[in-house]
């Protein structure tokens, strides 16, 4: 049940991964083995850059860089080893395009960022329960017809808001896509979700069972 009277702070660290170019070896020597392994397994340079940035954020902002400081739950979600930290915070990481973001909170949290331009209704329907598709088509999309902004762009932003909301909730639950979100009719109910636009192109959403306020922190 959502706690209405207790507001939590979610710190969202934002890093443009390209800013780490030229520092790869230095960073690899100072991040957790979990992220070094993901970096080494990635084939595309863009994915390598994102994994490097994720490890950098965890090391720089959470102080986790040792062998046993990062553990994985049964679904592969990383978390801080409570034996290594006093009252460790919860965190969630996402990346899209040039951005890598990390949400940090005292309560379970999920974050997702997506470049809005890549999303279409058929793509969105792969993860969004029919209930929310119907709501979006009936309420959200008609509302932008008289928008002073480009309706096509506004439509993409709505798709991105729904997409990132779903992923943020799945991450906060700690299961990711191990279950089919389309089968959870009330997937987004009883979650507090906030979405913001970055650079007029990306939508970032955070989810938590507690009410919260987002504090953005740019790294570099």
Structure characterization notes:
- The chain is 32% helix and 29% strand.
- The chain has six helices and nine strands.
- A four-stranded mixed sheet has the order 4-5-1-9, with helices on one face. A three-stranded antiparallel sheet has the order 6-8-7, with helices on one face.
- Strand 4 and strand 5 form a beta hairpin.
- The chain is globular, with a radius of gyration of 18 Å.
Detail the topology: elements first, then pairings:
Blueprint: E1 3-16, H1 24-28, H2 33-41, H3 45-62, E2 70-72, E3 78-80, E4 90-96, E5 99-105, E6 110-115, H4 121-124, H5 130-140, H6 151-173, E7 192-198, E8 202-208, E9 210-219
**Helix and strand run:** EHHHEEEEEHHHEEE
Binned strand content: 25-35%
Q: Any idea what the CATH superfamily is called?
A: 4'-phosphopantetheinyl transferase domain
Architecture, according to CATH?
A: Alpha-Beta Complex
Task: Please name the CATH topology.
Answer: Ribosomal Protein L22, Chain A
Main sheet properties: 4 strands, mixed
Tally of alpha and pi helices: 6
What is the average per-residue confidence, as pLDDT, rounded to a whole number? 92
- Range of helix content: 25-40%
Count of extended strands: 9
Provide the domain count: 1
Which consecutive residue ranges, at least 5 long each, have pLDDT under 50? none
CATH class: Alpha Beta
Structural class: alpha+beta
Q: Give the CA-CA distance, first to last residue.
A: 38 Å
Dominant shape: globular
Rg, rounded, reads 18 Å
| Spatial order of strands in the largest sheet | 4-5-1-9
